[in-house]
Amino acid sequence: MASRRRMLLKVIILGDSGVGKTSLMNQYVNKKFSNQYKATIGADFLTKEVQIDDRLFTLQIWDTAGQERFQSLGVAFYRGADCCVLVYDVNVMKSFDNLNNWREEFLLQASPSDPENFPFIVLGNKIDIDGGNSRVVSEKKAKAWCASKGNIPYFETSAKEGLNVEAAFQCIAMNALKNEPEEDIYLPDTIDVAGGGRQLQRSSGCEC
Amino acid sequence: MARRLEESVGHKNEALETGGRGFLMRSEITHDEHPLSLGKTSVWNQFFQETEIIEQIERDVKRTHPDMQFFCGDSSLAKSNQEALRHILIIFAKLNPGIRYVQGMNEILAPLFYVFRNDPDQNNAVYAEADAFFCFVELLSGFRDNFCQKLDNSVVGIRSTISKLSELLKKHDGELWRHLEITTKVNPQFYAFRWITLLLTQEFNFVDSLHIWDALLSDPDGPQETLLRVCCAMLILVRKCLLAGDFTSNLKLLQNYPQTNINHLLYVANKLRGSSAG
User: Where does the signal peptide begin and end (chain B) (predicted)?
Assistant: First the structure.
């Protein structure tokens, strides 16, 4: 049946410049860390196959530029996202303070159908630095913010050491899946003949 | 600016002194000159904003061509070259308050500085910083609109430049254009944003991008027209792969453009001349 079709889950990674978005994505997808990443301009794109229960999904990950200047160009990248990952650096207070801006900007530009329940995930990255001695944002503080925004799942990661990265992305995939409307999965049962173009497009997508 | 800041610090000291003698007089803190002021004219606010830009420049200068010893590493050469890049970007940001510093400017500055710094004539090489600054300003005078957020949706901003590329492709290879933008829904912004804002410096190795820049900077049509032709030629050169590809494989291909014979690329680009979409 058409539900065998491999499903796409779109994930956007946001956060201040230099918090480690590119490193996290590469650690997850390629299991590699490098000190040599250039600044991301626009958005980079990677995919990874993930298995949830007994089904295979393609995670489509968009790693975005951190500078504020690029935000107004975000709408093309944000649209259709199933999950948004907010990253900050536990050693830089400002990157944590800005999470709220990133979250609001995303909701504004992506305009998801149910913004209250749109799945976000927060990652506090670079916990390896200086053995944790230079951190300025406590886990407690971060968790409190996440709780206040509708219980956003929170992970502390080190893209360098590969700490918690796999677990975080597994959670990201699960949450992205929750966001995916059911009709996408059980498409053949929900075709609405009166529905017009949208369904037609979809069914033609399934045939091939 | 530094002088004004000193003056303002002077005010603060005065205030502290008066404070020591009794109640702090309100009139001592005037004109919104205090560290928490958000007023646009406040030197403190300007100071914090500049600190933020300098930090951003610092971060990006450190990640400019991390694979090249000329730019990165612990050598004194790399250190002094980074210092020069930093100076140029900071001065540019201060002289252009409407744009300031935008990520990616470092990538455009790097080839200019590299060429001047490696001038075989030492008498010229010592002025690399000043020469690179002058040329950087010159070059950006033609491309600065791409960096300006306020112009993103105008007829001169980056979105409009990307549409020109799309038009150019449509004109020269309608089938490829249709497959890319209609069938596989690859929005040109997903790949061409970086191609255009960085003048192709991240798509090819350093030597190849210098080769392309020679063409961009020497063409009588000007860098922007020439750049769009080269971008369009890049698409045409991989058309076979693109026509066989879906969204994912096409976007991956265009974001990681394969190594190419640059002479051939420029030859193809040159043949698109005289029929620009702009």
Answer: none
Q: Which residues of B touch A43 (CB under 8 A)?
A: 190, 193
Which chain B residue's Cα is nearest to A69?
B149
Contact (CB, 8 A) for B192 and B162: yes
d(CA A106, CA A111): 8
- B93-136 pLDDT tens trace: 999 998 999 999 999 999 999 999 999 999 999 999 999 999 99
ipTM of the complex model: 0.83
Q: Does residue B27 lie within any of the structural domains?
A: no
> How would residue B29 be classed by pLDDT, with cut points 50, 70 and 90?
low
Q: How far is A150 from chain B (nearest CA, A)?
A: 31
Chain A CB within 8 Å of residue B93 CB: no
Q: How many CB pairs under 8 A join A and B?
A: 68
Range of the domain at B71: 44-145
Q: Select A3-178's CATH number: 3.30.70.20, 3.40.50.300, 3.90.1150.10, 1.10.3210.10.
A: 3.40.50.300
Nearest to residue B248, comparing CAs of A156, A59, A27? A59
Q: Which chain A residues are within 8 Å of B64, Cβ to Cβ?
A: 38
What CA–CA distance (Å, rounded) separates B173 from B193? 20
Distance CA A69, CA A39 (A): 13
